[in-house]
Amino acid sequence: MIKRTLERKLKQLINVFSIVSVTGPRQSGKTTLIKSVFPNLPYVSLENPDDRQFAQNDPRGFLDNYPSGAVFDDIQRTPDLFSYLQGIVDENKSIKYILSGAQNFLLSERISQSLAGRVGIVKLMPFSMSELNDANLLSTDFKEVAYKGFYPIIFDHKIPPEDFYPNYVQTYVERDVRQLTQVGDLNVFSTFLKLCAGRVGQLLNMSELANDSGISVNTVKSWLTILESSYIVFRLYPHHKNFNKRLIKMPKLYFYDTGLLNYLLGIRLPSQIQIHFAKGAIFENLIVGEFIKKRFHQGKEPNLYFWRDHKGKEIDLIVEDGSSLIPIEIKSGSTKKGEYFKGMDYWNSLSENNPKKSYVIYGGKENQIRSNGKLLSWKSIIDYDF
């Protein structure tokens, strides 16, 4: 079993809270991690029709079977349990429950209604580059890393990405989409998902996306919420510190997993990334996604933004570190080029940022310290704590 970074935070939270919630995309390894960290707690999957029916029809009797606590997976399927859990942990804080689910919207809604202040919340994403590197499973070619993606089952069962992702999309559409909303035509939704992939790393213009998808803007908003709540996509928002009076306010769209992104883009071999129109966006998604996973697996919310003004001047990633901002540019090229720092120089002049705290992450293999910042190999970012 590949050691997960989130394990440390899980052990810490269960000493503070009676209930810990673990969310994340389907197949991200939640069940494996929870069983490993809490081997003495009974595991119950509420996907199982018999257990679900018992919990729905007789929630008090169901919970009486677990007097010392339990792991309840897919608990959003049995919403009445949340109110009963509240009463139990209020009376006896020594009882421990682990709640797991893949639908963040439903799980968060139930927690906020019944368990606010009583539960520690963490998110488990697919493997990070750091986790794969520690297990000696990280390729030296970013195109292979991006193509394969990070879902544990690909590594544990050696399933080829071209076999895994079509089934993952079908399962996701069948389960999560139909549970969360009424989608009249799943083919239209699948087309919408692919159009989102084609816009990765770009400003999210919902009107254009609606026109290209043949749906309304309100439907776009609804479907994006579904994709976000199921941990398929996320939005990166612009930083609003006003170094320039006219800043872009639209967010950018990214996928949590680059393997899924490549599948939706029609890429079927790692070598195709090199000549694909979206090569730069795929690499950018790889790096931004790694920053997101690192924060989540530390039990923290993302502190990440981008910066862009109305003239198109842009910084791909801004890390907010307390009162300071760390600018990061992301370039897919493998050759060390001074022009990579052009946007950085402009932003540093506006913000009066120290160039020593400026970084360019590129597709090459060597690190280099320059007078206007640090050039970092994509693989070396696992050694940096930004």
Report on this model:
With 386 residues, the protein is α/β, with parallel strands linked by helices. Among the domains are: 6-123, Rossmann fold; 129-237 and 255-276, no CATH class. It is built from 17 helices and 13 strands. It has helices at 6-14, 30-37, 49-57, 59-64, 81-91, 104-114, 129-134, 142-148, 152-156, 161-180, 186-198, 206-213, 217-229, 258-264, 271-275, 279-297, 342-351, and strands spanning 19-23, 43-45, 69-73, 96-101, 119-123, 233-236, 252-255, 304-308, 314-321, 324-331, 359-362, 368-370, 373-377. The chain has a six-stranded mixed sheet with strand order 8-9-10-11-13-12, sandwiched between helices. Strands 2-3-4-1-5 form a five-stranded parallel sheet, sandwiched between helices. A hairpin with a 5-residue loop joins β8 and β9 (314-321). It is globular. The two termini are 28 Å apart.
Helix-strand pattern:
HEHEHHEHEHEHHHHHHHEEHHHEEEHEEE
pLDDT < 50 runs, ≥5 residues:
none
Gyration radius (Cα, Å) is 22 Å
Percent of residues in β-strands = 15-25%
User: Taking all residues together, what is the mean pLDDT?
Assistant: 92
Widest β-sheet, arrangement of strands: 8-9-10-11-13-12
Keywords:
386 residues; alpha/beta; Rossmann fold; 6-stranded mixed beta sheet; 5-stranded parallel beta sheet; 13 strands; globular
Topology record:
Blueprint: H1 6-14, E1 19-23, H2 30-37, E2 43-45, H3 49-57, H4 59-64, E3 69-73, H5 81-91, E4 96-101, H6 104-114, E5 119-123, H7 129-134, H8 142-148, H9 152-156, H10 161-180, H11 186-198, H12 206-213, H13 217-229, E6 233-236, E7 252-255, H14 258-264, H15 271-275, H16 279-297, E8 304-308, E9 314-321, E10 324-331, H17 342-351, E11 359-362, E12 368-370, E13 373-377
Parallel strand pairs: 1-4, 1-5, 2-3, 3-4, 10-11, 11-13
Antiparallel strand pairs: 6-7, 8-9, 9-10, 12-13
Helix pairs in contact: 8-14, 12-13
